[in-house]
TrEMBL record, chain A:
TM segment ranges: 39-57, 89-119, 131-154, 185-211, 223-251, 284-305, 317-337, 349-374, 386-408, 420-446, 458-484, 504-527
Pfam families on file: COX1
Protein name: Cytochrome c oxidase subunit I
UniProt keyword Methyltransferase, yes or no: no
Membrane topology: Multi-pass membrane protein
Superkingdom to which the source organism belongs: Bacteria
Keywords attached to this entry: Electron transport, Heme, Iron, Membrane, Metal-binding, Respiratory chain, Transmembrane, Transmembrane helix, Transport
InterPro entries the UniProt entry points to: Cyt_c_oxase-like_su1_dom (IPR023616), Cyt_c_oxase-like_su1_sf (IPR036927), Cyt_C_Oxase_1 (IPR000883), Cyt_c_Oxase_su1_BS (IPR023615)
Transcription recorded as keyword: no
SUPFAM superfamilies reported in the protein's UniProt record: Cytochrome c oxidase subunit I-like
TrEMBL record, chain B:
Name recorded for this polypeptide: cytochrome-c oxidase
Species annotation: Flavobacterium pokkalii
Glycoprotein among keywords: no
Phylogenetic classification of the source organism: Bacteria, Pseudomonadati, Bacteroidota, Flavobacteriia, Flavobacteriales
A Pfam entry, by short name: COX2_TM
Entry keywords, A to Z: Electron transport, Membrane, Respiratory chain, Translocase, Transmembrane, Transmembrane helix, Transport
Length: 598, 384
């Protein structure tokens, strides 16, 4: 199988002599490296929008119904008259923040960037299996982002039914204004997004299976590729289900069907819907929705594994166990969606089944966490910013993951379901962890993307402030969640019961504002280093993997000559049989050298 | 204005920091030729210590949180099954704290201890089946215990025994209001559908159903202590979730279907108010409210009333713009007080009759009498 990569080399031999125009090079590029950069920049822009939204609604929560000029400036006279945020606008901000962060930043921005950049480079391929489809995939993503942004500007406001868009709220404009045109655009945007994601995923799968270079067996692949590969598979299996849910919802909204609606009396009249069930929608949604959190976190895990090994100057501990746990997590992730629905009204027996499967996920997760920690043990840790973010990722993944034992247990979920406890849990375990993974990836592969280095001191400042603020924001949320404070409340002032939580809310928002502001350090570092950063060496982190054997200046086809052949696994760091503390995968085995993993 | 100030301050802070790092960079240029932007021994050392510092931060912050906010979470459960839930919760918390404490120490301690040095070589340690078996099997065993306990409790709580003697209550959700319907004398709720909604009959009860004749609709729900309450939930428009945190109870209200939950209250409202934790909590809240009140009055606005505790039913599923203000008071009475309260309520049938008869005055005496008989009878049945 892997020999095919070799033939491929000849097909592309002459391609980099083609003259490229500005448009084919920077806009409609079919080069995976350029597409990766396009994904990244689009993801960063969407990320800025998503984070600013969260800061706005955090300000509303800390100082409810107070007037802020910034609200009026950013939201306009209609949504924030006199600088006071309207209550349905709060819900709109929450909804779009969730949608943008989950899909546009942590799915497309993270997976799209690094799968595109690293799959061909690390397996030794000239490009993706279909460069053209790859280009279409990016531009569909771009289009879906544009549609989502346009939805912010429609008269009745953007979708406001929560990122989970449960009908009937999302189906009936009478129920909330955002369920009018805003929701239609949301659904259109997601349909385009899913098409983009499927094209990307199919490409990744085919590329990993078919285009590995000579000697690159599956058990020599870096863990990054394994996670991208498995992520693409769960994406292909679960995204179409969300598409079907979205299409059925479009039918209910526009063509009068009753898939999800039944017996509804609203605004003084009985609607015609009969026989549908919102619970069906919840099943369809979470059949994607839960694998989705693994689509988000698995690539981050892969990046962190790779970066930790490189910077510890040690092999990743338990390479095979890491692969097995990724596969186990991927498999289990498709049979646990019901833990979002313990109290949805479904049969409690199903709740028992889903509790069982859900808590099983803790086992492969624990294996991963312990393997990362052991990778650090007796290492020679190079504290590059990417390494700091990787260590931070393991930390938040553990902290956030542990509370999953509470939420995944149906009995305990009864009382913490949909409270701030859930917010604390998933932000730490998939939000912050995946963001850390993404930052780690950016700091580590920036030299590969732009041929320049990011400033390390700015990186350090970025990490430490973010690390303190992330815990500062989400750790206190556990307490207010356990106090019974529901999520998605515009203000808690109508419940004197929650008055003693207000100080905590102020503290959380303060941390959020400081943490948010310090992302500017990263943005400055990122954009200025593209142009003025220090020129990178070919292999600045002294890494073993194939991407660092390509020239610093990007060329179409990646390697100027033959594609290198692979002779060993990806983690030969500090191998006692070698002088150097890293042995690139391209170095042939010495006669009599012991083989650890093929 | 203050917000603008805050933002300006933050931006200035960021700029100051960036300038500082610039200066730091510049001073480095002369000192050494290392401008590779790759961590050197000095960085490794400093960052290693910071890792250790962060571990201290995590611990201090956790302990601070437990001391400062430890009294915020819900305390004493007010329902019979709540003890089981809280017990499982406490066991889980102990496990979580142990694992969290150990793993975070290892992670940051290793990050500090093994910070890189130029002539140091890492240990080539790629695999150890024994270790990996240990940290697969231990979590598996612990989780098996948690799963078994959890499923046992879940089955106890969620499967409602149909033969058991319960008080049947319907909780009805609509944007942005809760209403309750008590099943009355026969303890069976009359059939209902949104298509029957008309005038006073806002819950769409089928008034021709014999079971509906004694149903009572109320906007403040009273339930008797010590008796299992069988809740049936309906919604007329969008998803809502009936969340009764003090009873450790929650269930979604789904248009087009009836969902259920049952629990036995074990403290009356006044008993729960007198629990020491609650007295303390309410006193603290009132302190905060008094402070806020004086601030408001100084601004010329009206002050806040002092707070007394009441059980609440909150909406906990996003349901529209006023989702944040959808609540109903629940009062747990002693069985005697409950009987008295029930006796004062009017059945829905009579309410509907009254509303139809309203134009023709002078006929109100007879239904009122009938109502009283009905409800007293209902109370006796419900309490037996």
């Amino acid at each position: 199988m892997s020999a095919e990569g070799h033939d491929h080399a000849h097909d592309h031999e002459h391609e980099h002599h083609h003259k490229e125009t500005f448009i084919t090079k920077y806009i409609f590029s079919i080069d995976h490296k350029m597409i990766a950069k396009q994904y990244l920049i689009t993801g960063i822009i969407m990320g800025i929008i998503g984070i600013v939204m969260s800061l706005l609604f955090r300000m509303q929560l800390a100082w409810p119904e107070e007037s802020f000029k910034i609200f009026n400036i950013l939201l306009g006279d209609k949504f924030a008259p006199d600088g006071v945020m309207a209550n349905d606008v709060y819900l709109a901000l929450v909804t779009i923040h969730g949608t943008i962060m989950v899909f546009f930043v942590l799915t497309a921005g993270l997976s799209g960037t690094f799968s595109n950049l690293l799959i061909p480079l690390q397996i030794g391929a000239r490009d993706m299996a279909s460069g053209f489809m790859n280009m279409i995939s990016y531009w569909l993503f771009f289009l879906s982002a544009v549609v989502m942004i346009i939805s912010l500007f429609v008269e009745s406001g953007p979708a406001s039914a929560g990122w989970t868009i449960y009908p009937p709220l999302s189906a009936l404009p009478q129920a909330i204004p955002g369920s009018g045109t805003g929701m239609t655009l949301w659904l259109v945007s997601m349909a385009i997004f899913i098409a983009s994601s499927l094209m990307g995923s199919l490409n990744y799968i085919v590329t990993v299976i078919n285009l590995r270079t000579k000697g690159m067996s599956m058990t020599r692949l870096p863990l990054t590729i394994w996670t991208f590969f498995v992520t693409a598979i769960i994406g292909v299996l679960s995204f179409p289900v969300l598409l079907s849910a979205a299409l059925l919802l479009i039918f209910d909204r526009s063509f009068g069907t009753s898939f999800f609606l039944s017996d509804i009396y609203i605004a003084g009249e009985v609607l015609h819907y009969q026989g549908g069930s919102p619970v069906l929608f919840e099943h369809l949604f979470w059949f994607l929705g839960h694998p989705e959190v693994y689509i988000v976190i698995l690539p981050a895990m892969g990046l962190v594994s790779e970066i930790m090994a490189t910077n510890s100057r040690k092999p990743i501990f338990g390479y095979r166990a890491m692969i097995m746990s990724v596969l186990a997590i991927a498999f289990l992730s498709t049979i646990v969606w019901g833990h979002h629905m313990f109290i949805s009204g479904m049969n409690p027996f199903l709740g028992s089944v889903f509790t069982f499967t859900t808590l099983l996920i803790a086992i492969p997760s624990a294996v991963k966490a312990f393997n990362w920690i052991t990778t650090l043990w007796k290492g020679n840790l190079q504290m590059n910013p990417a390494m700091l973010f990787s260590i931070g990722m393991v930390s938040t993944f553990i902290t956030g993951g542990l509370t999953g034992i509470i939420l995944g247990d149906s009995t305990l979920d009864i009382n913490v379901h949909d409270t701030y406890f859930v917010i604390a849990h998933f932000h730490l375990v998939m939000g912050i962890s995946a963001l850390y993974g993404m930052f780690a990836g950016i700091y580590h592969w920036f030299p590969k993307m732009y041929g320049r280095m990011l400033n390390k001191n700015l990186g350090y400042v970025h990490f430490w402030v973010t690390a303190v603020c992330a815990y500062g924001v989400f750790f206190p949320m556990h307490f207010i969640g356990l106090a019974g404070l529901p999520r998605r409340y515009y203000t808690n002032t109508n419940f004197p019961l929650f008055d003693d939580l207000q100080n905590v809310n102020v503290l959380i928002t303060t941390f959020a504002l400081v943490g948010g502001a310090f992302q500017l350090v990263f943005l400055y570092n990122f954009f200025s280093s593209i142009f003025y950063g220090k020129k990178a060496e070919q292999n600045p982190w002294r890494s073993t993997t194939l991407e660092w054997t390509t020239p610093v200046e990007h060329i179409h086809g990646n390697w100027p000559g033959e594609i290198p052949e692979v002779h060993r696994w990806a983690y030969d760091y500090s191998n006692p049989e070698h002088e150097e503390d890293f042995v690139p995968q391209t170095v042939p085995m010495k006669p009599g050298e012991s083989v650890l993993h093929h | 204005m203050t917000s603008l100030l805050v933002i300006i301050v933050l931006v200035l802070l960021a700029i100051a920091l960036w300038q500082l790092t610039k200066i730091f960079d510049l001073t480095q240029v002369g000192a050494s030729s290392d401008n590779s932007q790759v961590a050197n021994d000095k960085d490794n050392n400093l960052q290693g210590y910071l890792m250790f510092g962060f571990l201290a931060f995590l611990y201090v912050f956790t302990i601070y949180g437990l001391l400062k906010w430890g009294n915020l979470p819900l305390h004493t459960p007010a329902s019979a099954h709540g003890g089981q839930v809280d017990n499982l919760m406490n066991i889980t918390w102990v496990l979580i704290f142990i694992v969290q404490a150990v793993t975070q120490v290892l992670l940051y301690w290793f990050a500090f201890k093994y910070k890189g040095k130029k002539d140091q070589k890492a240990l080539y340690f790629a695999d150890n089946n024994k270790l990996e078996a240990i940290w697969s099997i231990i979590p598996a065993v612990v989780l098996a215990g948690l799963i078994l306990y959890g499923l046992y409790a879940w089955t106890n709580i969620m499967f409602i025994d149909e033969d058991e003697d319960t008080v049947v209550v319907e909780v009805y959700a609509q944007q942005f209001k809760w209403t309750a319907r008590i099943a009355g004398e026969d303890n069976v709720l009359g059939k209902a559908n949104v298509r029957y909604i008309e005038g006073v009959n806002t819950l769409g009860v089928d008034l021709s159903d014999p079971n509906a004749q004694d149903d009572i609709v109320v906007s403040e729900l009273h339930i008797p202590k010590g008796k299992k309450i069988h809740f049936k939930f309906r919604s007329q428009d969008v998803l809502h979730s009936a969340y009764m945190p003090h009873f450790r109870a929650q269930m979604n209200c789904v248009p087009g279907m009836v969902t259920e939950f049952a629990f036995t209250p074990i403290y009356t409202t006044s008993e729960y108010r007198e629990l020491p934790e609650m007295v303390e909590k309410v006193a603290h809240i009132n302190e905060l409210r008094a402070k806020r009140s004086t601030e408001l009055i100084a601004k010329g606005e009206s002050g806040l009333d002092p707070y007394t505790f009441d059980y609440l039913l909150l909406c906990n599923k996003i349901c529209g713009a006023s989702h944040y203000n959808m609540q109903m008071k629940i009062v747990v009475d002693t069985p005697e007080d409950y009987k008295k309260w029930l006796a004062q309520q009017t059945t829905l049938v009579n309410e509907v009759k009254a509303s139809l008869e309203q134009p023709a005055e002078g006929e109100s005496a007879a239904p009122a009498e009938a109502k009283e008989n009905d409800t007293v009878a209902a109370a006796t049945v419900a309490m037996k």
